[in-house]
Amino acid sequence: MLNKENCIFAIIDVQDKLVKAAKGGESLAENVSKVAKAAQILDIPVIITEQYPKGLGATVAQVKNALSNAKLIEKTSFSAMNEPEFENELVNIGKTQILICGIETHICVLQTAADLLSKGYEVYVLKDGVSSRKEFENDTGIELLKQYGAKITCTEIVLFEWLKTSKNPNFKQIQALIK
To answer: Does 75 participate in catalysis according to the annotation?
Structure first.
């Protein structure tokens, strides 16, 4: 189960042009924004990557606006782990669970998650926070992620696993995100 004390939230390439091209992109951005807001409230570190932002645009405003202290890393590699700054940030934070979301499931999310798993991280994929341009590619990416050993989850599961109990002092704030 996810543990907020041991978790990093990695947002992979939720950028303007990619959100517009992805199946259900607006819904994805909304879910990622909810989890980002919860991470902010619960003080969970967040790393955002942007694949070639000059051509694909910046991280969508609703996600970027939900975060005040996320680490932003530009990349050209499909796997964020091929960017030394990304891996260095993970090492510096020192947590072993990575919740990952983003675009495209079958390319950047898949390759990043596979590399994280090979380095011994426990990887959770936010199923309602990933997408590809084609549904078949998204579904294939998720299937491969499962085969590689990633755990598949969704927004509400994440929020309530992070909270653990309704007695958590942040319960009402987090609950308000999904009402």
So the answer is: yes
- Examine the residue annotation and report whether 151 is marked as an active-site residue of this protein: no
In order along the chain (179 residues), what is the average pLDDT of each group of 10 residues? 98 97 96 98 98 95 92 97 97 98 98 98 98 98 98 98 98 95
Catalytic-labelled residue, pool 4, 7, 13, 127: 13
Overall pTM surpassing 0.90 (yes/no): yes
**Domain ranges within the chain, ordered by starting residue:** 4-176
> Does the active-site annotation cover 115?
no
Q: Name the catalytic one among 17, 34, 71, 75.
A: 75
144's enclosing H/E stretch is: helix 135-148
User: Which CATH class, in words, describes the domain spanning 4-176?
Assistant: alpha beta
CA 13/CA 80 separation, integer angstroms: 10
